[in-house]
Amino acid sequence: MHKSEEEWRAVLDPQAFAVLRQGATERPWSGEYVSTSATGVYRCRACGAELFRSGEKFESHCGWPSFFDPAQSEAVTLHEDRTLGMVRTEVRCAACESHLGHVFYGEGYDTPTDARYCINSVALTLEADDSVQ
Prior knowledge:
By secondary structure, the chain is mainly β. It has two helices and nine strands. The protein starts with a helix and ends in a 5-residue tail after the last strand. Residues 5-129 form the MsrB domain.
Protein backbone atom coordinates (compact mmCIF):
# COMPACT_ATOMS: atom_id res chain seq x y z
CA MET A 1 0.00 0.00 0.00
CA HIS A 2 1.58 3.23 -1.13
CA LYS A 3 0.14 6.66 -0.47
CA SER A 4 1.63 10.11 -0.72
CA GLU A 5 2.34 12.10 2.43
CA GLU A 6 -0.66 14.28 1.58
CA GLU A 7 -2.92 11.23 1.34
CA TRP A 8 -1.68 9.94 4.72
CA ARG A 9 -2.25 13.37 6.32
CA ALA A 10 -5.82 13.35 5.00
CA VAL A 11 -6.69 10.05 6.72
CA LEU A 12 -4.62 10.26 9.94
CA ASP A 13 -4.90 12.78 12.76
CA PRO A 14 -1.69 14.73 13.53
CA GLN A 15 -0.53 12.45 16.35
CA ALA A 16 -1.19 9.27 14.38
CA PHE A 17 0.61 10.76 11.37
CA ALA A 18 3.63 11.70 13.52
CA VAL A 19 3.90 8.17 14.95
CA LEU A 20 2.90 6.05 11.96
CA ARG A 21 4.54 8.00 9.16
CA GLN A 22 7.36 9.91 10.90
CA GLY A 23 8.45 7.39 13.56
CA ALA A 24 7.51 9.47 16.60
CA THR A 25 6.57 7.92 19.96
CA GLU A 26 3.53 8.77 22.03
CA ARG A 27 4.05 9.68 25.68
CA PRO A 28 4.13 6.67 28.02
CA TRP A 29 0.83 5.87 29.79
CA SER A 30 -1.08 8.18 27.40
CA GLY A 31 -2.46 5.63 24.93
CA GLU A 32 -5.92 4.11 25.03
CA TYR A 33 -4.69 0.49 24.83
CA VAL A 34 -2.00 0.53 27.53
CA SER A 35 -4.13 -1.18 30.16
CA THR A 36 -7.09 -2.53 28.19
CA SER A 37 -7.92 -6.18 28.64
CA ALA A 38 -10.63 -6.39 25.97
CA THR A 39 -10.38 -9.38 23.66
CA GLY A 40 -10.11 -8.96 19.94
CA VAL A 41 -7.80 -8.10 17.08
CA TYR A 42 -5.41 -5.14 17.03
CA ARG A 43 -5.12 -3.62 13.57
CA CYS A 44 -2.87 -1.02 11.98
CA ARG A 45 -4.57 2.37 12.32
CA ALA A 46 -3.21 3.40 8.91
CA CYS A 47 -4.26 0.47 6.73
CA GLY A 48 -6.36 -1.89 8.85
CA ALA A 49 -4.05 -4.90 8.58
CA GLU A 50 -4.26 -7.42 11.42
CA LEU A 51 -1.14 -7.08 13.56
CA PHE A 52 -1.70 -8.57 17.02
CA ARG A 53 -4.36 -10.45 18.96
CA SER A 54 -5.40 -9.83 22.53
CA GLY A 55 -4.19 -13.31 23.52
CA GLU A 56 -0.62 -12.16 22.85
CA LYS A 57 -0.98 -8.91 24.84
CA PHE A 58 0.56 -8.81 28.30
CA GLU A 59 1.09 -6.30 31.08
CA SER A 60 4.70 -5.15 30.97
CA HIS A 61 4.24 -1.95 33.02
CA CYS A 62 6.31 -0.02 30.46
CA GLY A 63 3.69 2.59 29.50
CA TRP A 64 2.79 1.20 26.07
CA PRO A 65 0.79 -1.85 24.97
CA SER A 66 3.02 -4.92 24.88
CA PHE A 67 2.64 -8.12 22.89
CA PHE A 68 4.85 -11.20 22.88
CA ASP A 69 4.16 -12.17 19.26
CA PRO A 70 2.48 -10.75 16.13
CA ALA A 71 -0.80 -12.35 15.04
CA GLN A 72 0.99 -13.71 11.97
CA SER A 73 4.75 -13.78 11.57
CA GLU A 74 4.49 -11.85 8.30
CA ALA A 75 2.21 -9.11 9.75
CA VAL A 76 5.15 -6.95 10.79
CA THR A 77 8.66 -6.29 9.54
CA LEU A 78 11.69 -5.57 11.70
CA HIS A 79 14.32 -2.93 10.94
CA GLU A 80 17.52 -1.80 12.65
CA ASP A 81 17.03 1.59 14.30
CA ARG A 82 20.14 3.55 15.30
CA THR A 83 18.38 6.73 16.44
CA LEU A 84 18.77 8.16 19.94
CA GLY A 85 22.36 6.92 20.18
CA MET A 86 21.46 3.24 20.57
CA VAL A 87 20.62 0.20 18.46
CA ARG A 88 17.02 -0.95 18.65
CA THR A 89 14.73 -2.99 16.45
CA GLU A 90 11.90 -1.00 14.89
CA VAL A 91 8.56 -2.72 14.19
CA ARG A 92 6.62 -1.67 11.07
CA CYS A 93 3.36 -2.80 9.52
CA ALA A 94 4.24 -5.14 6.66
CA ALA A 95 1.26 -3.93 4.59
CA CYS A 96 1.83 -0.16 4.64
CA GLU A 97 5.29 0.22 6.24
CA SER A 98 3.96 2.41 9.06
CA HIS A 99 6.04 2.71 12.24
CA LEU A 100 4.41 0.84 15.13
CA GLY A 101 7.06 0.79 17.86
CA HIS A 102 10.03 -1.40 18.82
CA VAL A 103 10.68 -4.98 19.88
CA PHE A 104 12.97 -5.91 22.77
CA TYR A 105 14.37 -9.31 23.72
CA GLY A 106 15.68 -10.94 26.89
CA GLU A 107 13.86 -8.85 29.48
CA GLY A 108 12.67 -11.80 31.56
CA TYR A 109 8.90 -11.54 31.15
CA ASP A 110 6.92 -14.73 31.81
CA THR A 111 5.68 -15.12 28.21
CA PRO A 112 6.04 -17.90 25.62
CA THR A 113 8.59 -15.91 23.63
CA ASP A 114 11.62 -13.86 24.56
CA ALA A 115 10.13 -10.72 22.99
CA ARG A 116 8.24 -7.59 24.02
CA TYR A 117 6.67 -5.78 21.08
CA CYS A 118 6.29 -2.30 22.58
CA ILE A 119 3.67 -0.68 20.35
CA ASN A 120 2.23 2.83 20.32
CA SER A 121 -1.53 2.80 21.07
CA VAL A 122 -2.09 5.47 18.43
CA ALA A 123 -0.70 3.05 15.82
CA LEU A 124 -3.49 0.57 16.58
CA THR A 125 -7.23 0.12 16.50
CA LEU A 126 -8.94 -2.63 18.46
CA GLU A 127 -11.62 -4.72 16.78
CA ALA A 128 -13.21 -6.05 19.95
CA ASP A 129 -14.63 -9.56 20.08
CA ASP A 130 -18.42 -9.09 20.23
CA SER A 131 -18.87 -12.35 22.12
CA VAL A 132 -17.16 -10.96 25.22
CA GLN A 133 -19.07 -8.59 27.46
